[in-house]
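Tutorial sheet, problem 5. The two components below are modelled jointly, 527 residues in total.
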Amino acid sequence: MATFKKKFLSASLPVISGVLILGIWYLVSYIYGRNEGFDVQRIIIPFPHQILDALFNERATLWIATKQTAYAALVGFVAAVVVGYALSMLLASAVWVKKALYPWVLVLQMTPVVVLAPIFVLWIGQGLPSITAITFMIGFFPIVANTTMGLVSTDRNLLDLFEMTNATKSQEILYLRVPYAMPYFLTGMKIAGTLAPIGAITGDLFAGSSQGGAGGIGFMVILYNSQLKIPELFATAFVACLLGFVFVGCVNWLHWYLLKNWHDSVRKTEIS
Amino acid sequence: MPASALSVPRVILTNASKRFGSTTVLDNINFAAQKGEFISLVGPSGCGKSTMLKMIAGLHPVSEGEVIVDGMLPKDAREEMAFIFQEANLLPWRRVQQNAELPLKLRGVLKEKRIETARKMLELVDLSHALGLFPWQLSGGMRMRVSIARALTLAPKVLLLDEPFGALDEMTRDNLNEDLLRIHERDGWTAFFVTHSAAEAVFLSNRVVVLSANPGRIAKIIEIDLPKKRDAPLRESPEYLKYVAEVSHAIRTVH
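Model answer (C-alpha cells):
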C-alpha cells in the first residue's frame, strides 16, 4: 500500500502545482486588469476562463487551422526523415563523401530557417508547399547529424565479425549498420518531431494564407494579433502546445517501441 | 600424432611480420599448427598476441611473409575459420537463437537448416533454455557461451579465440574451459587461443607459444605433456602446476 500512496502523491503533485499556477494567473490577471472591469475582455492577461471561452467559440476555425498545421508538420517531418536518412546513408558510405558534403550540410544548418523562409516563399509561393519546405528544413539536420553519427560509429568488433563471415556490403548495412544506428536515428527523429510543429507554425507566419477558409496556426496568430483578440491568441497557443505534445508523444512511442527489447535508453533494469 | 596429419599443417606462418606505420608489432614469426592442435598464445601485454590472431584471420593482412590456412590465403579461407572475440560481441537487438544463426544467415543457409544448427550448438553449450532471451538478459558467461555456439555453427576447421574469457570470474572461466575442451575433443578443430592466464593456457593447450614484446617474436614454445582428457581435478595435480609455473616464469622473463 505504501507504493500506492507514493504513486498517488507523485501523480497529484503536478495537479497541485497546476492549481497553484492557475490561482496566481487569476491574481495577476485581476491586478493588471483592475481598470478594465470584470466582464470586459482583458487585453494583457485574460482570465483562464476567458481563454476557454475563446477556445470554445473559435473551435471550428482553430480545428481547421490545427489540421492544416498538423498536415504541413507531418509532411515536412516525413520528408525530413526520408531525405535525411538517405543523405546519412550517402554520407556514411565513404569517408570522402562525408568530407565533401558534410560542411555544406552544416552551412545550410547554420543559416537560420527564419531567414530562408521568405526566399522559399519567393520560390515556391504562398501556402502549403512553402510551409512544408520550411518544416522540412528545420527537421532535416537533426536526422542527418544523428543518423550519420550512428552509421559511422558501428562497433569495430562487430564489423570484424561480419567480415569473418564474408558478409556482403549490403548485408553489413542491413543487418549491422542500420540497426546499430537505430537509437541514434530515433534520437534525431525525437528532435525533429519536437521541431516539426514549430517549423510548420513558423512557416505559416511567413507563407500562411487563408485559402480554403482558414490558414494554419501561425496564420491565426497573425490574424488574432492584428484584431487584438488576445484570449483567442492564448487559445491558439494552447492548441499549438497540444499539437506539439501529440507529435512528440507519437515519436517517443515509436522510439520506445523499436528499442524496448534491447536498448539501454528504454529497457527495464537488468536481470542478472 | 599420425604422420599424415603432421605432413599438412593446418595453419602455417612463414616469416610473417606486421607493422603499423613505423612500429613493428610482430617480427618474423615462423610457426605451424597441425590439425586438431590447441595452441595458446601468451606474453606480456603489447606483444602482439591479438595481432597474430587477426593476422591468421586475415583481419590484419601481413606486412611481410605469408600466412596459409588450410592451403589458402586467410581471406580465402574464411569459410574454414571462426573468430571468438574478447567481448561476446553479440548483436543486442537479436535474441540468443537469432544471434547464433547470424553467420549462417549471412552465408545464405536456408532457414530451417540454420535454425536446427543453431539450436544444436546452443544445446551443446547448455543454453537450450535461453533461446528467446536478449543478450542483456544474460550473464557474462552465458553471453560468451552464445558467442561460442555462434562460432561453432560454421563447423570451423580453425577456431581463433581472442582472450574470450578475460572478463569473466574464475569459476565461470574454469567451467567454460572445460566445456571448450569437451567440444574440441568432439569436433577436432585447430585452436589458437590468446590469453593472459598461464593456468588457462596450460589447461587448454598442447602447446603454449610465449611471445616477447617490442617487437613481438616467438620467445619460447612449451609443449604441455598432460593427458589429453583434462578435467577439474587436473588443476590440482603437481605436473599441471609445474607447467603453470614454467609458463608464468617464461612470460615474466621474456624481453
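Marking note: Chain A has ten helices and no strands. Full credit if you identified this.
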